[in-house]
Amino acid sequence: MLSKYQEALEKLIEEVHAFGKLDREAFALVFEAVKSNDLEKAEEARRLLKGNHKANATIDMNAITTLALYAPEASDLRRVVTLIKIASELSRIGDYIKTHAKNVRQQIVGEEGGLPVDETCIGFHQSTLRALDLALEAILEEDSESLDRIARQISVEESKCDDFVSILEKNMIGEICSRPEQADELVERLHVMRKLERVSDRCVNIVKLARYALEGGKLKL
Fold first, then answer.
1. pTM of the entire structure?
2. Alpha-carbon distance 141 to 137, whole Å?
């Protein structure tokens, strides 16, 4: 039989993982909106993340309650504090995705003939989605070797995202030069894309936090 503390810890892990799954589901919806010019999917993604900050606050409160009731020591304390930090990373990711969903909606409405999509855009979304999947896997993982594997894989996806965004930035700057009358809109789109690139960065942070929770040592984010 699990102790009361172990039950509370498992419940907290499940809450954080479910919180991350909302981010993943919302991003998948935005990706579909991008590929199919589906306005409803972009709106659905925004609705899904509407309670993002409230959910994060609930997780924080539950974690603090766990600390207050059971006063865990050493690795147990580290695990609970790490879950608070992971939830914060997921909340920021949710903010980036909501902004992206809003931008995609505006583009679908404003672009005649639909939203322009190329292989670079598709690749960027695919790598970001893969990074989210790996981060979710890391939250539940309790094996050091498996976390090492996840860390290697997510590093590859994060590097791909950097490369894709560099190409997208170059293309966007070219568009600004050729369509100066739409410069404000294009600059805003570029700003959103740069923020979205941080999703993979924060997924890397989540994996680092998961390893820290399991192994201890020094944490570098």
1. 0.90
2. 6
